[in-house]
């Protein structure tokens, strides 16, 4: 919990997001190294050429190079964007409704089950609980199964998020948004509202 890295992935989409993050970061580090070298070389270089007014080859190179770099970032990014929006045939559907300041969950596939999930207040927490993350009623979802989440809100804008799954859906009053994912690692996954929705957000 006290590190600077991304959370461990619990879904294939989050795994791909982490790979893309590392891929983009590597390109950025390489750009930083090349630009830093050029800047340092120019600062400490004592030679100047007063007659060099233009260099068409170098200008062509530093026009084409950024375009090629952007392609290397854009192609995996677009692939991932389409993967995240892909909706597979779900086995389980869970409806989540955002309220100020709790979530309501509804299972309707097999038996109709509805419950509210409130964050545990700080004065009621036990030693092994996480502040601002633990709730009184947890939603249970199966592993290695395609799951569809239908998200809406009852009052103001909310955003249903589980970072380790790489999913985030805006909860808007009067509108249904859906996301689909597959959990490939068992455990307790913590989420939160990622929209500033009021005092107890």
TrEMBL record:
InterPro entries: CcO_II, CcO_II-like_C, CcO_II_C, Cupredoxin, Cyt_c_oxidase_su2_TM_dom, Cyt_c_oxidase_su2_TM_sf. GO terms for cellular component: mitochondrial inner membrane. Belongs to the cytochrome c oxidase subunit 2 family. Component of the cytochrome c oxidase, the last enzyme in the mitochondrial electron transport chain which drives oxidative phosphorylation. The respiratory chain contains 3 multisubunit complexes succinate dehydrogenase (complex II, CII), ubiquinol-cytochrome c oxidoreductase (cytochrome b-c1 complex, complex III, CIII) and cytochrome c oxidase (complex IV, CIV), that cooperate to transfer electrons derived from NADH and succinate to molecular oxygen, creating an electrochemical gradient over the inner membrane that drives transmembrane transport and the ATP synthase. Keywords: Copper, Electron transport, Magnesium, Membrane, Metal-binding, Mitochondrion, Mitochondrion inner membrane, Respiratory chain, Translocase, Transmembrane, Transmembrane helix, Transport. Gene3D superfamilies: 1.10.287.90, Cupredoxins - blue copper proteins. It comes from the Eukaryota. Residues 89-201 form the Cytochrome oxidase subunit II copper A binding domain. The chain crosses the membrane at residues 24-48, 60-82. SUPFAM superfamilies: Cupredoxins, Cytochrome c oxidase subunit II-like, transmembrane region. It is found in: Mitochondrion inner membrane. GO terms for biological process: ATP synthesis coupled electron transport. It is a multi-pass membrane protein. Pfam families: COX2, COX2_TM. Binds a copper A center. Residues 1-88 form the Cytochrome oxidase subunit II transmembrane region profile domain. This is Cytochrome c oxidase subunit 2. The keyword Transmembrane helix applies. It comes from Homalosilpha cf. javanica HomaJava01. Its cofactor is Cu cation. Component of the cytochrome c oxidase (complex IV, CIV), a multisubunit enzyme composed of a catalytic core of 3 subunits and several supernumerary subunits. The complex exists as a monomer or a dimer and forms supercomplexes (SCs) in the inner mitochondrial membrane with ubiquinol-cytochrome c oxidoreductase (cytochrome b-c1 complex, complex III, CIII). The keyword Membrane applies. One of its GO terms (molecular function) is copper ion binding. It catalyses: 4 Fe(II)-[cytochrome c] + O2 + 8 H(+)(in) = 4 Fe(III)-[cytochrome c] + 2 H2O + 4 H(+)(out).
């Amino acid at each position: 919990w006290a590190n600077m890295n991304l959370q461990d992935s619990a879904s294939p989409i989050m795994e791909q997001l982490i790979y893309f993050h590392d891929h983009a970061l590597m390109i950025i580090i390489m750009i930083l190294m090349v630009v830093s070298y050029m800047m340092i070389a120019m600062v400490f270089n004592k030679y100047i050429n007063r007659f060099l007014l233009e260099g068409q080859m170098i200008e062509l190179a530093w026009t084409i190079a950024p375009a090629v770099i952007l392609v290397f970032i854009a192609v995996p990014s677009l692939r991932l964007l389409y993967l995240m929006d892909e909706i597979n045939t779900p086995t389980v559907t869970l409806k989540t409704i955002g309220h100020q300041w709790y979530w309501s969950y509804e299972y309707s596939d097999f038996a109709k089950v509805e419950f509210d999930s409130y964050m545990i207040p700080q004065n009621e927490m036990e030693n092994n609980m996480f502040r601002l993350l633990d709730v009184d009623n947890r939603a249970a979802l199966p592993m290695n199964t395609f799951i569809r989440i239908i998200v809406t809100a009852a009052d103001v804008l909310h955003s249903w998020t589980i970072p380790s799954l790489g999913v985030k859906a805006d909860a808007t009053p009067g509108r249904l948004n859906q996301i689909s994912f597959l959990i490939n690692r068992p455990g307790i996954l913590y989420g939160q509202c990622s929209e500033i929705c009021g005092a107890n957000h």
